[in-house]
Specification:
alpha+beta, 6 helices, 22 strands, 4-stranded antiparallel sheet, 6-stranded antiparallel sheet, 15% helix, disordered N terminus
Length: 382
């Protein structure tokens, strides 16, 4: 059983019922199917590519409004906002508009290292920026304008976070950095990395939950479920007195209105430290059932929540779950190779045997039955 299957077994164990989005992507001028179009749901782990005929398929567990994004080099990026109902199937016919001749994206010279760091700080926050590495920084270009530092990307940025176990594809649409603030607009998708060992799955799960715990999304979900105090949150008014719980009223399916007092203080006990945040409502607040605000600009977040509440840190479809080893170790296999000699001269026959050690022997008839062996020389040639 390979590493991908090990991860898949863990994911399938927690999979929810899915809605379906399928369809065909065509060229708006030639009216022919476009192969290799990147199709994904903004901010989530749901992504696919169109086949040779331009057809695609996505399974999605979210409910409510989502942004469906289509990208193909040489075409304008397409964003389509759609409303997803549970267990429904949607068929879409979408067209991409070719970029005008001479306006296609070109490779740019990479900006100074300190400017790349400024971009990472604006995207992930100073606290987390060093956990991320941009694999293709040459795609970024910077231009000094009167209003500030203008950012452009010639192609999607590939960003790795080995600590959380995600690779992010970030499609920058607009970027402006000034001395006082940053303004970034873009779309992104998450691709879970493949674990090389079982412990890595546990490490990733623990780190993801550490980011989630005490975040704004965690608070809102706990308020919707009526479990804020049970999950470690204490709400205070601006004078430090216990505040009444925010009023939450249902809106449309899987959406809620959140009524906050002007300013509330939030304490969160994480078992070691007490984290303190301040929330200031600047307008009406609406959230979905997953704790994601529709207009995050209407809430001023300060303190500990200001850092770990960035949507780029965790997928919007992330569900906190710390797996027990017993949940996936039953699928664990270890391969051993035994040779007849410790070394060989050129031309000598090589005899070897292969063994598979099953963590859970009762499953040996259901797991891997074939092992592939490659003989590679010092030049990496078979």
């Amino acid at each position: 059983m390979n590493r991908c299957a090990l991860t898949a077994c863990f994911i399938l164990a927690t999979l929810q019922s899915l809605s379906q989005i399928s369809g065909k992507v065509t060229d708006s001028k030639r009216h022919e199917g476009i192969p290799g179009v990147e199709v994904f749901i903004h901010g989530r782990t749901t992504s696919s590519q169109s086949n040779s005929s331009g057809e695609f398929y996505l399974g999605i567990s979210d409910e409510g409004f989502v942004d469906l994004i289509l990208y193909k080099k040489g075409y304008q990026l397409l964003r389509s906002s759609i409303r997803i109902a549970k267990d429904k199937a949607y068929v879409l016919n979408l067209e991409l508009i070719p970029l005008a001749t001479g306006k296609a994206s070109k490779d740019q010279d990479i900006g100074p290292t300190n400017l790349v760091s400024k971009f990472k700080e604006a995207l992930f926050g100073k606290e987390y920026m060093n956990e991320y590495s941009i694999l293709n920084p040459i795609a970024l270009s910077f231009t000094w304008e009167k209003s500030g530092l203008d950012l452009k990307a010639a192609e999607p940025l590939l960003i790795d976070n080995p600590g959380l176990g995600y690779q992010i594809r970030y499609y920058l649409q607009y970027g402006l950095l000034t001395e006082d603030q940053s303004e970034l607009q873009g779309y992104f998708s998450f691709q879970p990395m493949i674990a090389e060992r079982s412990k890595q799955i546990l490490d990733w799960a623990a780190h993801r939950q550490q980011i989630y715990n005490g975040s704004l999304r965690h608070l809102i979900k706990s308020l919707i479920r009526g479990k804020a105090e049970q999950e470690g949150f204490i709400l205070l008014d601006k004078n430090g007195k216990l505040d009444s719980k925010p009023v939450i009223t249902p809106a449309i399916d899987n959406y809620y209105r959140l009524h906050l007092n002007d300013t509330i203080m939030v304490k969160y006990e994480n078992g070691k430290d007490t984290l303190i945040s301040q929330l200031i409502a600047k307008g009406p607040l609406q959230t979905n059932g997953e704790g994601i605000l529709l207009i995050p600009e209407n809430l001023d977040v300060r303190g500990s929540m200001a850092g770990n509440s960035r949507t780029i840190l965790l997928p919007l479809d992330y569900e906190p779950l710390m797996p027990e080893p017993s949940q996936f170790m039953r699928y664990y296999e270890r391969i051993y190779i035994q040779t007849d000699k410790p070394y060989y001269y050129p031309g000598e026959p090589l005899w070897f045997k292969g063994y598979i050690d099953y963590f859970f022997p009762a499953w040996q008839d259901s797991l891997s039955k074939v092992a592939y062996v490659e003989i590679i020389d010092t030049n990496r040639l078979i």
